[in-house]
Structure formats: C-alpha cells, structure tokens
Design goal:
The complex is a heterodimer of chains A (115) and B (324). Chain A is mainly alpha-helical and 115 residues long. Chain A is built from 5 helices and 3 strands. Chain A folds into 2 domains: 71 residues, Winged helix-like DNA-binding domain superfamily/Winged helix DNA-binding domain (Arc Repressor Mutant, subunit A, Orthogonal Bundle), CATH 1.10.10; 32 residues, no CATH class. Chain A has a two-stranded antiparallel sheet with strand order 2-3. The chains are: A mainly alpha (115), B alpha+beta (324). Chains A and B meet through strand 1 and helix 2 of A and strand 3, strand 4 and helix 10 of B.
Chain lengths: 115, 324
C-alpha cells in the first residue's frame, strides 16, 4: 500500500497515519477481505513507532473500515467511509488553496460556481 | 512447424520402439520374464509378456501428455529456458524409456527362466548416461532464439512525488498452504516432544532422530510462508517470514526500473527462492510480482500484493534521487 505523509502537517502523527491508510484503502488497492501488511512493517517503512501505527489502525477499526482477527492480522472489511474520506480530501484541498493564497471563503465560492 | 514435426516424429519413434521391439523378440523371451532387479543386479520381480508391454508405456505416455499440454496451453514457450527444458525432457525421458525397455529385453533374451536373467552392470550406466546426454543435446538444439520477456513493458508505471511529503510503499504476500503445512509440522513436533516425556521407549528415540529434520523444515516454512516488501528512502527492503527476518536490502542506485508482472510458479521454476542466471525470483505464491531490473542487467521478481503501486514508487524514487 502506498502511504504518503505530509512533513509539515501539524496534526497528531496517528491521525496522519490513519489518513494515509484511509486514502490507500479508498483508492482501491485493497479490496474487502484483503489483509493489510503487518503494523510493524508499516511503522518501519515510515520510520515511526509501531504503537503509533497500531493506534491509527484501531481508529480505523472503530470507523468500521478494518477488522482485527487474532492470528489473522488486520483485514479490510468495507469501503472507506465516504464522509471521512471527503473530510480528508477537503482538508488537503484547503491546505493547497492556502498555499496559493486562497482562503476558505474563496473555496466556497469556487464550489458554488461549479455546475 | 519443423520443430512440431520433429517432436511428433520422435514421439512416434519412441512409441514404436516400446511396442515393436518386444513383439519382435517375443519368441526368445521366457514367460514370465524378469522385470525388476535388486541392487546386486539379480532379478527379484517378474511379469508376463502382456504385463510388461502395458507397464513399460505409462511413464512415456504421461510425459508426452504433460509436455503436449505445456506446449499447447503453457505461457512459457516464449522463454528460452522453457523451450530448452521442454525438448530436454521429451528426448531425455524418451531415451530413458527406450533404454530401460531394450536393456530389460536384452537381459531376458534366450534365458531358460526369468531367475537366470542377470542384468549386466554397464546397462544401468549406459541407459542413464545416454538419457542425460540425449536430453542435454536436445535441450541445447531446441533452445531457439533468446526470449523476449526480459524487455520491460513499454512504460514502467510512474508516480508524481510532491515536495514536503514522505511517500513509502509496503507490500505483503503470504501462502496459506505453506502456513497449513507449517502448522502440521509444528503439531507433529509437539506430539513428539510430548511422547518423549511419557516414556523412554526405543520407538520414541527413533522418532526423535527426525528432530533435526523437523526443526529445519519448520525454519524453511517460517522463512517462506510470507514476505513483506518496503520501498522508501533510498532502498527496497524485503523481509522474510512473519518476523521480517532475514532481511534483504537493495539500494535503489543499483536498480534501473521496476514494473508489475503476473508470474506463475511454472514460469519461474517453482515456489521459493529461484535463481536462474539473471532471473532470480522470490516466490511465496503465484500471481502479481514486483520485478526489479538491475543496472547490471539481471532482474529480481518478488511475489507481492499491490505490486503496481510499489513499482511506480520505485521508478519515481529512482527518477528523483538517482537522476536529479
């Protein structure tokens, strides 16, 4: 799974990891029933503590996206929650807008102009 | 076309020899005739002429059927190593079948009773040697042109990396069958350990002599039951088994490009760690594989899920870091 972290993001790390995992699952590289790579490996790849990854995974389990099974690891149960994914995309859109000098209200206006 | 005619001709020739030679010398054979010999080359098994005719055919028939099926439906014919092994097996097994047949007949020729049909020692060496030489020569002659698949797909997948972001890829693959085998081996191991605590019978001691083999088997299963591949920073890291150990690190500097490819165990030579020259493969299950092409020319295929994303990240990191 492809995981991207924004190095300038100020949110807690476990939230960022949860966001990256949610996006990877939402983009369809993992189907319901597929097993995720071990948390230790995800942590190793990102260079962070495995407990942070576990905390992110638990959050996604509570969201209903993942399922924990003893001895079988963590697997995907459903498609990513539409709203959670949209909130995340909106946050990224807002960040990008700010980089170009646009604010929240400018984004509202752009959205209203769309057909 | 010529190669097909040659193959068909060879199949007919071997079949004809297997059937016609016994019939031609039938009058000079004892009935029953000797068909099996001990290591001391003394006959210890016999069969009637009809049984001999029927029993001498199956190995050859099964080999032909398997090779025809592989030739018609297999995807490996584009590869040189497959063509070479196809021809090698066809001619090698054919020669072996004919050799066994002729040597059996020669030993039985003009003897009064099957028990006096001694097998000359050089027959065994000659039959095996001829089969090995014929198979090797046929494999060399039938190897054909170098295979195409070494050339990567036209556009290796790419990914756009954004500044200020850290992108990594983690892929995982596991073989459920291997896991089951591993559990059975471990259960066997546990039962042995339990039995050895119950009594000190000789039987248990005999079973315990298998312990080293069981331990090695457990280790092999642990290492090959699953693997994880990480791409990030300046390297690709492959971790074997549930503990991610041992690890193999490949620096991206040594990699030219990467792509995803569907490979089956029959195409790479089986499961596990395969090392055909320049075409190494780490396969815990068939299907999607991440293929790395080294700058030095060889390639390494690793069976892993979601390989296309992994390949696109490898290519992006190479483009960014190695050729800035």
């Amino acid at each position: 799974m492809l995981l991207t972290l924004d190095l300038n993001d100020v949110r807690p790390l476990h939230e960022q990891v949860a966001g990256a995992l949610r996006r990877a699952i939402g983009e369809g590289s993992y189907q319901p029933g597929d097993r995720l790579p071990p948390a230790r490996e995800i942590a190793g790849a990102l260079g962070i503590n495995p407990n942070t990854v576990l905390r992110a995974l638990r959050g996604l389990r509570d969201e209903g996206l993942l399922e924990f099974r003893r001895g079988r690891g963590v697997s995907v149960t459903g498609r990513a929650d539409g709203r959670a994914l949209l909130v995340q995309r909106a946050r990224e859109l807002l960040d990008e807008a700010r980089r170009y000098g646009y604010g929240r209200d400018d984004l509202f206006r752009i959205l209203e102009e769309l057909p | 076309m010529i190669s097909r005619l040659a193959a068909a001709g060879w199949v007919l020739l071997v079949s004809a020899v297997l059937i016609a030679t016994p019939l031609a010398v039938r009058e000079r054979l004892p009935d029953p005739m000797a068909t099996h010999w001990t290591f001391g080359l003394v006959p210890d098994g016999a069969a009637t002429f009809g049984e001999f005719l029927v029993v001498s055919m199956p190995v050859w028939v099964v080999t032909c059927a398997a090779l025809i099926a592989a030739g018609a439906y297999g995807r490996g014919r584009a590869r040189r190593v497959h063509r070479a092994s196809w021809w090698g097996l066809l001619v090698g097994v054919g020669t072996l079948a004919m050799g066994v047949n002729l040597s059996t007949l020669a030993a039985n020729l003009d003897v009064p009773d099957w028990r006096s049909a001694l097998l000359p020692g050089w027959h065994l060496a000659a039959v095996l040697g001829c089969a090995a030489v014929a198979g090797t020569v046929a494999g060399y002659l039938g190897r054909g042109e170098p295979g195409e698949p070494d050339i990567p797909p036209p556009a290796p997948p790419r990914l756009r990396l954004e500044p200020g972001r850290q992108t990594v890829w983690v892929g995982h693959a596991r073989n459920t069958t291997t896991v089951m085998v591993g559990l059975v081996v471990l259960a066997f191991f546990a039962v042995l350990a339990f039995l050895s605590t119950l009594d000190t019978d000789d039987d248990v001691g005999m079973y315990l002599s298998f312990l080293p083999a069981v331990a090695v088997g457990t280790l092999v299963v642990l290492v090959t039951m699953s693997l994880t591949v990480r791409v990030g920073g300046d390297r690709v890291v492959i971790g074997f088994g549930p503990f991610g150990w041992p690890r193999r690190r490949i620096r991206l500097e040594t990699v030219e490009s990467a792509w995803a490819e569907e490979l089956r165990a029959t195409e790479v030579g089986g499961w596990g760690f395969r090392g055909l020259p320049g075409r190494a493969t780490i396969m815990v299950r068939g299907g999607e594989c991440l293929v790395l092409r080294y700058r030095s020319g060889g390639r390494l295929a690793i069976s892993v899920d979601d390989a296309a994303h992994g390949a696109s990240l490898v290519n992006a990191l190479i483009a960014e870091r190695v050729n800035p």
